[in-house]
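Example record used in the benchmark description.
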Amino acid sequence: MTRTVQQLFDLKGKTALVTGGSRGLGLQMAHAL
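Model output (structure tokens):
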């Protein structure tokens, strides 16, 4: 079964916890999510 990147990282119905979200890479990840 072949999956796309979007399918592998699909967060629908899930909760994401981003630590270090006040600056740097964590902040960028929080914005992206």
